[in-house]
Amino acid sequence: MNTDSDTIAAIATAGSEGCISIVRLSGPDALNITEKISRSAKKPTGATPNTVLYAHIVGSDGKDIDEVLLLILRAPKSYTCEEMVEIQGHGGRISAARIMRRCLDAGARPAEPGEFTKRAFLNGRLDLLQAEAVQDLVKAQSEAAANMALEQLEGGLSTAFNEIYDALIHLLADLEATLDFSEEQLLLPVYDEIKTLNILIMNKIERLLKTWPQGHILREGASIAIIGRPNVGKSTLLNRLLDKERAIVSPIPGTTRDTIEESILLHGIPLRLTDTAGMRTTECHVEREGIERTRKTIQQADLILHVLDASQPLDDEMQAFWRKIQQNKLLYVVNKTDIKKYNHSENLPKNRTYEGSLLNNEDVIRLKNCIYETITSEFNLPDQPHAVISERHRDLLQLAQRSLKQADQLMKEQIEEKTIFISTHVRDAIEQIGKITGRVYYEELLDQLFAGFCIGK
Amino acid sequence: MNTDSDTIAAIATAGSEGCISIVRLSGPDALNITEKISRSAKKPTGATPNTVLYAHIVGSDGKDIDEVLLLILRAPKSYTCEEMVEIQGHGGRISAARIMRRCLDAGARPAEPGEFTKRAFLNGRLDLLQAEAVQDLVKAQSEAAANMALEQLEGGLSTAFNEIYDALIHLLADLEATLDFSEEQLLLPVYDEIKTLNILIMNKIERLLKTWPQGHILREGASIAIIGRPNVGKSTLLNRLLDKERAIVSPIPGTTRDTIEESILLHGIPLRLTDTAGMRTTECHVEREGIERTRKTIQQADLILHVLDASQPLDDEMQAFWRKIQQNKLLYVVNKTDIKKYNHSENLPKNRTYEGSLLNNEDVIRLKNCIYETITSEFNLPDQPHAVISERHRDLLQLAQRSLKQADQLMKEQIEEKTIFISTHVRDAIEQIGKITGRVYYEELLDQLFAGFCIGK
Fold this sequence. Notes:
The structure is a homodimer. In chain A, about 45% of the residues lie in helices and about 15% in strands. By secondary structure, chain A is an alpha/beta fold. The first copy, chain A, is built from 15 helices and 13 strands. Chain A is flat and about 80 Å long. In chain A, a hairpin with a 2-residue loop joins strand 9 and strand 10 (about 270-275). The longest helix of chain A is centred in the middle third of the chain and has 23 residues, at about 155-180. Chain A has three domains: about 10-125, Gyrase A, domain 2; about 130-210 and about 390-440, tRNA modification GTPase MnmE domain 2 (Four Helix Bundle (Hemerythrin (Met), subunit A)), CATH 1.20.120.430; about 220-380, Rossmann fold (3-Layer(aba) Sandwich). Chains A and B meet through strand 4, strand 5, helix 2, helix 4 and helix 5 of A and strand 4, strand 5, helix 2, helix 4 and helix 5 of B.
């Protein structure tokens, strides 16, 4: 079924609220199908590329279904590089569904998720990195994330990977050239050049790998766990963070677990705040399940806010428990300094400790800035994100890195017979990098990648 | 602020799910604003009408915000009859919001609800009936409702009202002509003609008024109350109706009250089902509040399903209570005929009684058909809705009807001096009909009418 000769159709606007609905068609029959189901002064099949026609979509009973505009986008100058029509109707669920059904009646088939973008990729309009950026742009929850996606869409990240890919191809050619030399002819300087090039490539990969935390924060948001004894002000902290910056109020779908999770945008950075409800039970006699849940939250957290009460002594048992968790991710929030009795900060790392009262507005603003700065420095977030990799890229880059390290090891041994094995490792690296940009692909990889797209994109 | 010389902008696609977002601009500066915030090979201000340009929207920092298509629609051949641009971006909440903000930066102001359609009306592209149809089409919950809206958008209803309006103008001219006659010249035949014309008009109004229940059912859905003693099968009835026809699963926003309300589409007719939870308390010792709530539901219902249990005797006290409610809206559902012990149907009106077991699939299908037939015959729903009025039209028509009846009364008295009063009544009727089509309007009427529209329409 899923061949390029099919003409695909999808409703490309959201459910019920929109004032305009768009049904998108792409494929060789896009114009013919539109002509079959519409009436207009000018025929779609005769229309100039990039024109808008006023038309009516006609039902199977010959009666009008909707008054529409037809955007005629002809191959190869369309999103998919194929013949495309966008049918823009008055909107409404029913109307869009009827237009869609008419398209199917007339020979189109329903598009799979991301299939328009997949065709744009297969037809050479976008590489895989750019294709991924399209969906990142749709899903972006912050301006920084949108900037990052657009940078990627415009080829910012592609350039970095293409450079690596081309250098690897060059390396492989040089390597294979050495096979033609007889043993006595083999020049060590050539081999040294190859080794140096490999190291250069590994450095580039290393630099790209370091951008992953940024990408993670901007794409998925920073995960913040709020921990601490009962009544120290954990819920107050959550509410104070939520109230003023309630930019994204809905919990991120699919991520909500038993614990309370809320999302906010803090100075443009998406944060997912989790109140570790499991640790609320008192006296540290926390049930196993509670501990397990909290431990998981803490493990997955990018930053842990440990709330302490300045009016209460430190709880040794609790302290011992916390000490087991990753200290490098901790920010100590010493609350209730307005009724302060104990000087907890003496025992805490200075650059990791904040003191204040969550009831005081200025203190809350200071805390927010403190959280913001901790995240930006921890994740090395630049003002303008540039060439930032995703989890998929990281995984493939790490595989490439491993192959090149193995190649490097063999090169150090300088046994010429190993050239053939070195080549194999370099080829492996080329394949991994190729899978990132799409120079190397197979159906399964594409299926997996585009499955996360929305239908109509 | 709200003048036609403003250029207005709005996001015309829904919230977050869409794969394409549209920001719509209308007004004299639409093209200039677009040019200020975009870069493209061809300039928007120089573009041919009805063309699509490939462009990038540029942020205030000079960096790209989104890759877009620009639909250039020039006055007067656009939806609003003004200069219009539709900026079609990759979608996503952030991206749409940023494009919108750039439009505002460049001199547009945010559009009010329905303001694009209001401009289409003010510029003579649509009359008020057609303008209302645009929103009806967006909101349509069934194909029949969408058909009705499109019929109205294409002028089906306008024709009916324009005929009445024109006839009234004719009537008024004839009436005022009689004022020029001296008393002795006044010809009774002329006066008879006027009377006859008035009656013809009143008949037309009467016919239109009769279409209101159809419009009500198709626009808002039929409201169905389920009443009866506990354990007779009310919840089963609700569930059986919901399960198979769960076409619209979400409750209609704003209408959900304390009682459970669910919406379904039954053979294309939207039904809002209300389970009268308040009457669930036993032995008829229903609390005042429960009775009040149920009474309200019953009062507003278009059809009441009274569920009875064939395995239990009729409850006299409860029967006495039900007897007080409108019997003409009742459909008796005698359930549990599989364990039947009593023959309730003997005491119930035959054409208003259904017998069966809600556990039996065939019986449920029969019940659905029974409900469908009762509604279609009660509300006189035709296969293809045609020229169906709304509540606003009904209210104005009733005022016009009252004026014409008063005119008719005065005409019967045949006292010539009354001609001037008759004219006044006819003028009143003309104003009411004019307000329906928009031949007569004032700012307040438009504000009220368009307030119900979505922003961007």
